[in-house]
Design brief:
Chain A: Keywords: Amino-acid transport, ATP-binding, Nucleotide-binding, Transport. The structure holds two protein chains of two kinds. Chain A is of the alpha/beta class. Chain A has one domain (about 1-230): 3-Layer(aba) Sandwich (Rossmann fold), CATH 3.40.50.300. Chain A has helices spanning about 40-50, 70-75, 95-100, 115-120, 120-125, 135-150, 165-180, 195-200, 215-220, 225-230; strands spanning about 1-10, 15-25, 30-35, 55-60, 65, 80, 155-160, 185-190, 200-205, 210-215. The radius of gyration of chain A is 17 Å and the shape is globular. In chain B, a hairpin with a 2-residue loop joins β1 (about 135) and β2 (about 140). The longest helix of chain B has about 30 residues, at about 1-30. Classes of the chains: A alpha/beta, B mainly alpha. The structure holds adenosine-5'-triphosphate and magnesium ion. Magnesium ion binds near residues 83, 158 and 159 of chain A.
Chain lengths: ~230, ~625
Amino acid sequence: MLSVSGLSAYYGRAQILDDVALEVGAGEVVVLLGRNGAGKSTTMKAIMGLVPPAAGSVRFDGAEIAGREPFEIARRGLGYVPEERRIFTELSVLENLEVGRRPATAALRPWTPERLFALFPSLGSMQDRPGGRMSGGEQQMLTIARTLMGNPKLILLDEPSEGLAPVIIERMAEAIRALKAEGLSILLSEQNLHFAQAVSDRATIIEKGRIRWSGTIPELLAADEVREQYLSV
Amino acid sequence: MENLLLQALSGLASASSLFLVASGLTVIFGVSRVVNFAHGSLYMLGAYLAFTLVTQLPRGHLGFWGGVVGAAIIVGLIGVVVEVLLLRRIYRAPELFQLLATFGVVLIVQDLALMTWGAQDLLGPRAPGLRGSTEILGLRFPLYELFLIGVGPVVLGLLWLLFHRTRWGTLVRAATQDREMVGALGVNQRMLFTSVFFLGSLLAGLGGALQLPRESVNLHMDLSIITEAFVVVVVGGLGSLSGAALAALLIGELHAFGILVLPKITLVLVFLVMALVLVVRPHGLLGKPEAAARGGQGSAAPLIGPAPPALRRLGLAALAVAVLLPPFLGDYALSVLTEMAILVLFAASLHLIMGPGGMASFGHAAYFGLGAYGAALAGQWLGAPMLAGLALAPLAAGIFGLVFGFFCVRLSGVYAAMLTLAFAQIAWSVAFQWVELTGGDNGILGVWPDRWAAPKLVYYYLALVLCLGATLLLRRVIHAPFGYALRAQRDSTLRAEAIGIDAFRIRWLGFGLAAAAAGIAGGLFAYAKGSVFPTYMDIPRSVDALLMVLLGGVHTLSGPIVGALALTGLQEQLVRITDYWRLVLGSIIVLLVLFFPQGLAGAARARWEARHGDA
Ligand SMILES: Nc1ncnc2c1ncn2[C@@H]1O[C@H](COP(=O)(O)OP(=O)(O)OP(=O)(O)O)[C@@H](O)[C@H]1O
Ligand SMILES: [Mg+2]
């Protein structure tokens, strides 16, 4: 579904990504693990076209998308959920969802506000509340719901557990499993190994902009030295 | 009492018209973050096009209202052309570049309008059905004014519905906050921006077209409305529609009653209010602090290094010419050279603020003018000799620079640019309206140098020595610890403060120093011309200063010097060979911003470095 190879990216003159490669199969949840500043967010931004890739290929659903503009990439069915959430604070919950709305193209069941409120019940009770007056957890749900309104085939989910209370993280994990059950493919980025292993099929580890390890979750759990070297405790 | 009511009503009518224009400006700013100087030109085009359509179409309701609406739509389309050809390419450029580029459009439109409609004022027909007047509480009030009073709220209501009840409006509001995110959600921002430009331009065109029955159509409408619209939009809070409505009301009534109570200071009053609001509420009445640059601004500026040897040699050669050639030149050439020397200093002073200081100034002419007026007033009222006048010039400019700068350097980006503009306009209005002191529009004449400096050659050398000396001094300052502190706070206020630099104080002093230097230039200019006028501190002169700096390039010290020489040379030639020099100059500005954003000296330097592989 998504296949990245040889991807490199720069901020100004600083090279942030170097020869990044990863794969996400249809219906699969892959987690990109790495410490602070490892390049997880940049990888997602480069895939999405928000940071122009300097070299490499990004193939999505059979077509090359590297070098395309973000809106074109989104229209092909790639959804992006930013780490900073970037809720439209002036807009109500329903209006935030409206901005994300795009006609369904995928074979997946189309999303409606009602279905999303079933997935994230707390959003349903605050449909007219401005995005700026929601808690961090609620904003995190809204940003995911907003992206789902575009009926993507695959979503890039950047550190959804960051800064959330354990109970909310648990609920987030359930939601991600529900999305996987719907047939959605997910590329997740995380530092929280506990959360990642609960929802993912495979893991890829990035450190200083390079991919250091790839394998299944059981393999990762077995490889103590890999975890120690690349993931902070 | 009755008079008050009439005045209030006519204030409402002005507020309504002002709101139409300002709403377009603020909507465009909200989404694109571009402060569109050309918005006033669109307003002017609306009036001219309405004139043509209304006088060509058959008389009657259909002809008139069809003409007005038709003009507004055509102006909307013109706005689309401007957006697609120019603005779309500079959305990520620094604010001052955008202001400059859109000012280029102002110049172009002025000459195109001159070519099409001629220089004379045009009087349009009155609106059919709204010709007479009506009685309100026993007072006669023109029907058309009453109609205008109604238009404002109706447009406000329609815009509100558009922004809150349609998908398009929701997308626009979202893009106002975070356009990159809207793009990542699959919305084609280009289409969105272009459509917003269409709407905003249409509103400007409508505002202009509706003036047809009220006042004559002329070539000065653009700048007079744009300054007022800036005031309204900034006072209301950039990007805020309700803020614009509130501010339009405030400014409209202020005008109406200001004329009754303080007829002498109406102009000052408006800018005073703007300055006051910005000082107390830096983001306007209903504005929000700008979100930290989302998908804006490029990377940090490169460091300024010493000039490469070739450039140094070129500079020395130019200096040799400047010293050795003049004895062989006639008076006219000497005047031109004197002016060039003065403008080099003027540009170098602005460069200190913009380059190393990283601040925006859209009103640097104020300090040039204050220097000129300081010298001229001292001569006229105190009988001060020239040298005393020249000493007073930087003092006057410097003191005002410190006073104005105290407020300006706290703001950044568009708001800083607007506050410097407001202060410049205050200075300009005082010079313009305080006739007893300054002679108003007629200026102060007979500001001649003392006898010993009267020969053009002597005065030229005097100007050369002072300007060169001051410019070299500025250069030294940039490389002194003060200059490093200035650049440190530009690159990162936090880091600068962490190493013990008081960023505010450094910026403030830098601003004052630049103002004083501009004051020297202004004083010299006054004696060179023998007169001073309010135009010494009007917007076009501030733009000239910006143009010189940006033409040369902000990131090199030689930039402003090259820019000053290039611009004066260019203007000199253009005025001589064509009546349409604005068209040419405007096009040059636009092309420059599009293709040489680092300026002439910057581009030359980049080439030089690329060729000689030195980093
Ligand atoms: N806008 C930017 N400009 C310059 N450098 C940046 C920018 N954004 C990120 N970086 C740098 O790029 C590197 C990778 O950052 P990135 O945000 O991709 O890391 P991350 O793995 O997502 O970290 P985190 O877990 O903190 O979110 C870091 O060294 C960071 O400092
Ligand atoms: Mg990150």
